């Protein structure tokens, strides 16, 4: 397979979680065998090169962890901040963005295993009054795999508005209420559209069924069992506690609080609210903790094997807004068929100043986790740094 096809495949893993991925070269059946193809030995040269030269125009720091049966590699590059330029070190905390969705979905699947929820029951069953009366029934399974048809809230103003409102908070209920002011996008189960609103609904179901907060349930069910001792949910706090790298966003000249960086201007976005992403993106964590989580999840130590199946199954529908582009997402992850027949599953996340990715083969012969302090983390198609890391993790 040519490099261009490999790039197309890994682009799906590295794509922004809030955007629709275009990767027609991918084979996505949702029913691949986990034991088929051996992964190549770890290519340390390729991995070192993938994070070389930081700080650079696209990113200021990066940490990568690769492990599995074919070896392991850890690497870090860049600086903790642009003004002091202290060298970045392993173990820095960062905002995981939409990787949080995997933890949320894992909790729902645990509740399925315990008989407390059913994927065949509807959102209206569990959260009466949340959706408009004229909405059709929306199954919980459709929320998990983004085939619900639920719309996103309207947003205006781009990053300038986000920065101005960076300390404002919103409740999960209000977020969903703003979203469902819009009509449902399509008949549930007929298309796939990846949107944060689905995971917000998951979080509200978790709270309704358990009688405890979303954060308490994920802490008790995921963080502690997986040994994620450096991870936490910030709630309404805008800070990242403990050691972390500063995050920056490229902005036009004259943007409030900005300063020159190379041939561009950036603004520090380390401190920002995360209530607007809640169960879809508010986790603060480390690369080592996400590696622990990925191994615990794929290894069946968090969700029983039967209930874990939806995480490795892509629905047989097309992407919303297209006629023939196949769905990309499972319940919580994305399936990728790589060169030589290697099948991997992964998830990325992006908050301003931070890009994150996890990925693994189903048999855990290869696991990759990366955190990049991207200067344009939410750009269309993600920055090339994350793509290069993902390519290097599976390179021969």
Total count of helical runs of at least 4 residues: 13
Task: Look at the helices and sheets and give the structural class.
Answer: alpha+beta
Low-pLDDT ranges: 1-35
What is the distance, rounded to the nearest whole angstrom, between the alpha carbons of the first and last residues? 12 Å
Mean pLDDT: 90
Strand neighbour order, sheet with most strands: 2-1-13-12-11-10
Overall helicity? 25-40%
Order of helices and strands: HHEEEHHHHHEHHEEEHEHHEEEEEH
Rg result: 20 Å
Tertiary shape: globular
Strand content: 15-25%
Tell me how many strands there are. 13
Commentary on this structure:
This protein is α+β, with helices and mostly antiparallel strands and 396 residues long. It is 29% helix and 16% strand. It has 13 helices and 13 strands. It has helices at residues 3-14, 44-50, 100-113, 123-126, 140-144, 158-164, 172-179, 196-210, 214-226, 278-281, 287-298, 305-308, 384-393; strands spanning 59-67, 73-78, 94-95, 191-192, 248-251, 259-261, 264-268, 284-285, 318-319, 334-337, 343-351, 354-361, 367-374. The strands form 4 sheets. A 6-stranded antiparallel beta sheet has the order 2-1-13-12-11-10, with helices on both faces. Strands 5-7-6 form a 3-stranded antiparallel beta sheet, with no helix packed on it. Strands 3-8 form a two-stranded antiparallel sheet. α1 (3-14) packs across α13, α3 crosses α8 (196-210) and α3 crosses α9. The chain is globular. The model is unreliable at 1-35 (pLDDT under 50).
């Amino acid at each position: 397979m040519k490099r261009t096809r490999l790039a197309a495949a890994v682009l799906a893993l590295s794509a922004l979680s809030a955007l629709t991925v275009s990767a027609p070269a991918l084979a996505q059946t949702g029913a691949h065998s986990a034991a088929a193809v051996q992964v190549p030995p770890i290519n340390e040269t390729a991995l070192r090169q993938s994070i070389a030269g930081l700080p650079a125009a696209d990113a200021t720091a990066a940490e990568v962890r690769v492990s599995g049966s074919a070896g392991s590699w850890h690497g870090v590059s860049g600086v903790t901040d642009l003004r002091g330029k202290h060298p970045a070190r392993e173990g820095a905390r960062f905002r995981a963005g939409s990787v949080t969705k995997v933890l949320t979905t894992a909790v729902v699947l645990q509740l399925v295993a315990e008989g407390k929820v059913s994927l065949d029951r509807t959102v209206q069953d569990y959260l009466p009054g949340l959706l408009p009366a004229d909405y059709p029934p929306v199954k919980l399974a459709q929320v998990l795999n983004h085939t619900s048809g639920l719309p996103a809230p309207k947003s205006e103003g781009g990053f300038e508005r986000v920065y101005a409102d960076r300390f404002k908070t919103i409740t999960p209920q209000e977020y969903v209420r703003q979203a469902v002011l819009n009509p449902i996008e399509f008949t549930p189960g007929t298309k796939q559209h990846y949107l944060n609103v689905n995971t917000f609904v998951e979080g509200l179901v978790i709270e309704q069924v358990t009688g405890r907060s979303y954060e308490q349930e994920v802490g008790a069910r995921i963080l502690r069992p997986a040994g994620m001792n450096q991870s936490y949910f910030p709630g309404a706090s805008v800070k990242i506690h403990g050691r972390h790298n500063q995050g920056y966003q490229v902005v036009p000249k004259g943007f409030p609080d900005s300063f020159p960086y190379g041939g561009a201007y950036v603004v520090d976005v380390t401190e920002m609210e995360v209530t607007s992403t809640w169960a879809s993106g508010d986790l603060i964590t480390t690369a080592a903790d996400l590696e622990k989580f990925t191994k615990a999840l794929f290894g069946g130590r968090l969700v029983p094997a039967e209930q874990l199946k939806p995480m490795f199954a892509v629905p047989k529908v097309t992407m919303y807004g297209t006629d023939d582009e196949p769905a990309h997402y499972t319940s919580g992850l994305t399936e990728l068929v790589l060169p030589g027949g290697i099948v991997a599953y992964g998830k990325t996340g992006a908050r301003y100043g931070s890009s994150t990715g996890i990925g693994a083969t189903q048999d855990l012969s290869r696991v990759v986790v990366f955190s990049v302090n991207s200067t344009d983390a939410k750009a269309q198609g993600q920055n090339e740094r994350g793509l290069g890391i993902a390519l290097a993790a599976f390179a021969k």
